[in-house]
Amino acid sequence: xxxxxxxxxxxxxxxxxxxxxxxxxxxxxxxxxxxxxxxxxxxxxxxxxxxxxxxxxxxxxxxxxxxxxxxxxxxxxxxxxxxxxxxxxxxxxxxxxxxxxxxxxxxxxxxxxxxxxxxxxxxxxxxxxxxxxxxxxxxxxxxxxxxxxxxxxxxxxxxxxxxxxxxxxxxxxxxxxxxxxxxxxxxxxxxxxxxxxxxxxxxxxxxxxxxxxxxxxxxxxxxxxxxxxxxxxxxxxxxxxxxxxxxxxxxxxxxxxxxxxxxxxxxxxxxxxxxxxxxxxxxxxxxxxxxxxxxxxxxxxxxxxxxxxxxxxxxxxxxxxxxxxxxxxxxxxxxxxxxxxxxxxxxxxxxxx
Length: 353
Ligand code: MG
Description:
Hypothetical protein af1432; mainly alpha; about 60% helix; flat; about 0% strand; binds magnesium ion
């Protein structure tokens, strides 16, 4: 068997010059290296074995988790993002393991009830006046799920001692879209593949739920093109949409790298323009469908009520979490509620409301 440094060198030799190296930029806290696994392989194990990762199964993507067996949950969304990311990372000569870790962790901080959950927590935090004159983190800055994903891996999860998963800086920095560090190519790729995944699977889920018809999708230029390819190949519109978007990403990287430039990782401006009408269609026919809105409003009410109740009467697990992390009252409530699955939040409101 080759030694770990030999295997790392062999893997690095496959990478493009602008890819992240397999040694990683080191961990948040120094730790002795594993004798078998590379740094990003250890990160992937820590993410998949975390409690926050398991809870993704019970969180809404667009449909409330548990509503139908075939609709995406936050967990299956995450796995689709990771799947799309990995394949394109290898094609681009980027670090497949790092890109996969970022994809697997990107939505860990998403609250229950999808985007309405995020909106409700954001409004609740902003409505709380800071108790001291100094602005405390989490009391006036609102809620953003990327920031919460970062907080989960650096503070809220524990490996049995201390706070956080002690991941590599490469993975941790890759979770903040607007952080102090410029995003690596792997992080840019995971972000782009997040959009590719939800565009394709939301179209698929919306069709399945009969929120719109296949014929109506044919009135939108991008899905008309995808439908045509799907008919020709005998495949589903979901897979041809992923293929069209991901191919554009690869072509755009190729075009922008001409003349020895560092490639731009993301959809081309042309495809982005073509995507816009489909996003507008989904916005109107799916995310703002009366049935979806009704469920999302219920989710928002649940979150607002839970936050208010917990501020007055924090339950024991919330106090334990706050004591371990040193969070103030509002932040502890936000951390606790953001971590919940849809069903746990609903059970809590039935018990307390
Ligand atoms: Mg996502």
